[in-house]
Specification:
By secondary structure, the protein is of the alpha/beta class. It is built from 26 helices and 22 strands. Helix 9 packs across helix 26, helix 10 runs antiparallel to helix 12 and helix 11 runs parallel beside helix 12. The chain starts with a helix and ends in an 8-residue tail after the last helix. The structure holds adenosine-5'-diphosphate and magnesium ion (MG). Adenosine-5'-diphosphate binds next to helix 12.
């Protein structure tokens, strides 16, 4: 059987060397198995057609049958398009192509019975269908439910359009004279009502109705996600077994004293829960590798501090690594304050720490006088040696790579516990998958009494009013951010916009009453820090900046965030930027400035921002708009290599599959039962082929 499946595709009846080369190059089908796993992307039901005359009543996609009665090309350059008049028994509609006109024109045959499929659009009061799918209407097919495969121009020119591919699949399925090996045992199949693999592969290609297609999809998606989760769980177990960590079982004086007598407020329920999860990690003797997710302002720092106190109570030192000097300074200032009554010495180490101070600091780290060290990646450097480092907090994980993190592991005999804090909200099902062998804790609750930020969306025409509003706020003593997109800091146009904006602002807010700061990526780091600091100290009222300010800066007095060309930012970035305000006692505002014409997606982003402040809800919408791969970076999604499941839309199935995988591992931890032997084989192959999967960077 196995041999049959790995037969090269050229040996299939009707393929041959030339078509085989195309199948390989164009759609990555190399073997019989590859073709079986080349799943259709949708199905057509050839018994249901709409009519041109009542399209207005039909929502979404429409399927029509009729003939093309004329084709014309209009326009030049960018407004070039191809229009075909399509007629059915009830009327005429335009089919329109904005791209690929030449190829399409040559493939359109007049007066032949065709069926078309597409999404009708109302344009200037007339219906048309942009970029429809077109296929021959073969009377024999009528009434049938059929798979549609994606094809390419080259494949089509060799007769392998959707229908051609479908024919090959049929040949292959009829040659398949033994059942396919089922990787899921009967037990699992029964429990989750899954059809067997052979049936599923048959039905995904040749269902007679939507219900059968649905059954097949469910089974195949489940299988795919099951193995993905299985792999993650096994990897996690391997890491866990390998990684022995320091045991910190004591809850001692420092922790108790701070918790009972010096905590300025009660912890939220979520903070308490997360702290418990961390404490459980730290006392077990395993090496903690935990991701702490929490929306901006959810109080991650305090959780980090309490975790470090646990370490200190057990005779260890703690460290916090921040992505920028300014953040390190902010942490240093607030944590030093907190630690004063406890007699824990806190120190700051950044690139600009003077050599003389550095020498003293190195000594005090080595003899254990310093309890908590806070800094930038300067902490990674080799002369930074601790007496007994037990826990490392990494703030805003995405700025540090895996390699850098690994350097912290080497700062003691056993690797210190690691807590990575991030404000980037990631839907739970995704976090489960993408953060592989990290454990995830979530603070899903904001401290009480926060005033929600009012967000509005404004067009260019309202600019004067927006400026007026800035004036009012500044007059009240508040501070304002104005953020510009700068995709690539060398892009001249973006840069000029930023500078124009800066000039307009300085003209509207003249000295000596106002001071305006500007910060962008082309400036020297020292100059950036200097300007940022002026704003932090309140010496300047307005900060004009690019997204360099995105990460974690805390200026409680800033109450207005203006985002210029907001349509060019992604949702999570908009949300992060908005999180810079609303940190003080004052009511805060976020104003999204955009051009007049917005695409559907941009509109959705603006609406979402205006509607909600909830980072997780925003992440869900982002996931729907962009898809999972995009959200986590294409490289990672590419490695996932999912053929049918979709992490963005199959969230519930991810949870099901994960539970099923967990159950197997509980029941058969070493995967050695006979009923699980197929799982074992497949899994070892997966582990071999992706040795480093699950590392994040
Ligand atoms: P982030 O999670 O964005 O790092 P911070 O740790 O900076 O958030 O906390 C934001 C603000 O909320 C800080 O001023 C902090 O003192 C305050 N804070 C944290 N926890 C609580 C709480 N349980 N109740 C009230 N305020 C809190
Ligand atoms: Mg923070």
């Amino acid at each position: 059987m196995n041999n049959f499946l790995i037969t090269p595709i050229e040996f299939l009846k009707g393929v041959g060397p030339q078509r085989a080369d195309l199948l390989k190059a164009e759609i990555g089908v190399y073997t019989f198995q590859g073709l079986l796993e080349y799943y259709p992307f949708r199905y057509v039901d050839r018994s249901e057609f709409q009519q041109v005359s009542n399209l207005a009543e039909h929502e979404g996609f429409a399927q029509l049958k009729g003939r093309i009665i004329g084709v014309m090309e209009t326009g030049v350059g960018r407004s070039k398009r191809l229009t075909a008049k399509f007629q059915d028994d009830t009327g005429i509609i335009d089919l329109v192509w904005f791209k690929g006109a030449r190829w399409i024109k040559s493939s359109l045959e007049a007066n032949k019975d065709l069926m078309i499929y597409g999404r009708p659009k109302l344009f200037n009061g007339k219906w048309n269908i942009p970029h429809p799918e077109i296929s021959d209407l073969n009377m024999n097919d009528l009434g049938g439910f059929q798979a549609v495969y994606s094809s390419t121009e080259k494949l089509t020119s060799r007769g392998l359009n959707s229908k051609g591919i479908s024919k090959l699949v049929k040949v292959l399925l009829s040659d398949l004279n033994q059942p396919l090996e089922d990787l899921l045992s009967e037990k699992i199949r029964k429990e989750h009502r899954l059809i067997n693999r052979t049936k599923a592969v048959e039905l995904i290609h040749l269902p007679v109705n939507e219900q059968e297609a649905q059954q097949a999809r469910f089974r195949l998606k489940f299988e795919e996600l099951f193995f993905l989760q299985m792999e993650l769980l096994v990897r996690k177990k391997i890491t866990l077994n390998k990684s022995i960590g320091y045991v910190m079982s004591e809850v001692g004086d420092k922790f108790n004293s701070f918790y009972n007598d010096h905590l300025p407020f009660d912890l939220t329920g979520a903070q308490k829960r997360v702290l418990k999860e961390i404490r459980n990690d730290m006392r077990t003797g395993h090496h903690m590798n935990r991701l702490l997710q929490g929306d901006v302002g959810s109080g991650k720092t305090l959780v980090a501090l309490l975790s470090m106190l646990l370490g200190i109570d057990n005779g260890f030192q703690g460290a916090i690594m921040a992505p920028t000097e300014i953040l390190a300074i902010q942490h240093f200032e607030s944590i030093s304050q907190y630690m004063k009554p406890l007699n824990v010495e806190v120190a700051l180490l950044t690139g600009s720490t003077k050599k003389k101070n550095r020498t003293v600091l190195h000594e005090k780290l080595l003899n254990g006088e310093i309890g908590i060290l806070i800094g930038t990646h300067a902490l990674l450097e080799d002369p930074v040696v601790f007496k007994n480092l037990g826990i490392v907090i990494i703030d805003e994980q995405h700025r540090f790579g895996v390699k850098q993190r690994a350097r912290m592991w080497k700062k003691n005999k056993l690797p210190p516990h690691i807590l990575i804090m991030t404000a980037t909200p990631i839907p739970r099902t995704l976090a489960m998958t993408f953060y592989g062998d990290l454990d995830v804790s979530v603070i899903d609750e904001l401290p009480p009494g926060r005033k929600p930020i009012t967000t509005t969306h404004r067009l260019e025409a309202s600019r004067l009013r927006v400026f007026g509003f800035i004036k009012e706020e500044v007059a009240k003593g508040r501070q304002v951010y104005i953020v510009y997109p700068l995709i690539n800091e060398s892009e001249t146009l973006d840069f000029n916009n930023l500078m124009d904006g800066f000039e307009a602002i300085t003209r509207s807010f003249p000295l000596p009453d106002y001071n305006v700061s500007i910060v962008h990526g082309k400036m020297k780091p020292a100059d950036k820090e200097f300007e940022m600091n002026r704003f932090v100290k309140g010496e300047t009222q307005i900060m004009v900046a690019t997204t360099v300010i995105e990460v974690g800066v805390n200026v409680p007095n800033a109450s207005v965030m203006i985002i210029e060309s907001a349509e060019r930012f992604g949702l999570s970035q908009l949300h992060q930027l908005r999180g810079r305000v609303g940190r003080g006692a004052e009511k805060s505002y976020c104003i999204l400035m955009t051009g007049n014409k917005l695409g559907k997606e941009s509109m959705k982003r603006m609406e979402t921002m205006v509607r909600t402040n909830d980072g997780f809800e925003i992440a869900e919408v982002d996931l729907q708009i962009r898809g999972a791969g995009d959200l986590m970076g294409t490289q990672q999604s590419g490695e996932l290599d999912l053929k049918i499941a979709n992490l963005a839309s199959d969230g519930q199935l991810v949870v099901l599959a994960r539970d099923a995988a967990k159950k197997i591992l509980m029941d058969d931890p070493s995967i050695e039962k006979v009923e699980n032997s197929a799982i074992r084989t497949k899994l070892s192959a997966m582990l071999r082929s992706r040795p480093n999967w699950g590392n994040i960077s």
